[in-house]
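FAQ

Q: What does a record look like?
A: Structure on top, sequence underneath. For example:
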């Protein structure tokens, strides 16, 4: 039986395709994405990941069981630890820590992270992890797709290391675990009466991911 994640993704099929097949993603896959677009994305992703860690912190407080609290705490600590990796990745693209600290948040970053945090604040743990899931699981799907493209692993593609990171075992396992957690929590707390609201949260978060790519492409503030 397919779980809640598959059902949500199926019901948001058009928005999901617009997210995982966005022009920004295509540009990463064939190496044609303008570097300035990627740099803008990296800076905003730094700000995004900080808010994402905050959303998992909220998850610790919303989680129904000790095991779920530990999962959310682990995800939060994981991101906080990976921030130093992200800072190094940015340094490799010529963005120093001071530039990251000073960067003004773009509206698409604020819209997305505010939406997820507010979904969690208003709702319960299931609402929160539904709003988080397009982000965590979507990047795993994108990584796998891009790694299979002709230039996805090509050393001449400047974005090959980024693709390898998300196509890699560690991120794939993390995304599979997030998906399993959503299915598990769904099996306990989903009722048909609340499904439409969850589907709306999922579809909105998916659209906000696509807007995040578009922000990178447009270098929008
Ligand atoms: C806009 C945006 N969406 C998704 C990711 C993917 N991602 C990378 S690390 C991480 C936390 C893992 O729990 C997530 C979700 C991203 N970086 N930026």
């Amino acid at each position: 039986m397919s779980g809640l994640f598959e059902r949500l993704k199926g019901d948001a099929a058009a928005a999901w395709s617009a997210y995982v097949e966005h022009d920004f993603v295509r540009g990463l896959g064939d190496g044609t994405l303008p570097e300035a677009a990627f740099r803008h994305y990296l800076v905003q992703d730094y700000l995004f990941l900080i808010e994402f860690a905050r959303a998992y912190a909220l998850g610790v407080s919303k989680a129904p069981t000790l095991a779920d609290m530990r999962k959310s705490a682990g995800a939060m600590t994981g991101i906080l630890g990976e921030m130093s990796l992200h800072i190094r990745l940015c340094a490799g693209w010529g963005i120093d820590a001071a530039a990251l600290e000073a960067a003004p948040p773009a509206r698409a970053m604020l819209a997305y992270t505010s939406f997820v945090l507010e979904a969690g604040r208003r709702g319960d743990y299931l609402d929160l992890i539904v709003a988080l899931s397009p982000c965590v699981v979507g990047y795993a799907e994108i990584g796998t797709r891009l790694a299979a493209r002709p230039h996805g692993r090509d050393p001449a593609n400047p974005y090959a290391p980024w693709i390898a990171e998300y196509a890699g075992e560690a991120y794939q396992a993390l995304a599979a675990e997030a998906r399993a957690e959503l299915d598990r929590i769904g099996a306990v707390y989903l009722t048909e009466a609340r499904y439409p609201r969850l589907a709306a949260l999922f579809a909105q978060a998916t659209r906000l991911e696509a807007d995040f790519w578009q922000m990178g492409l447009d270098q929008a503030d």
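Q: Is there anything notable about this one?
A: The chain has eleven helices and no strands.
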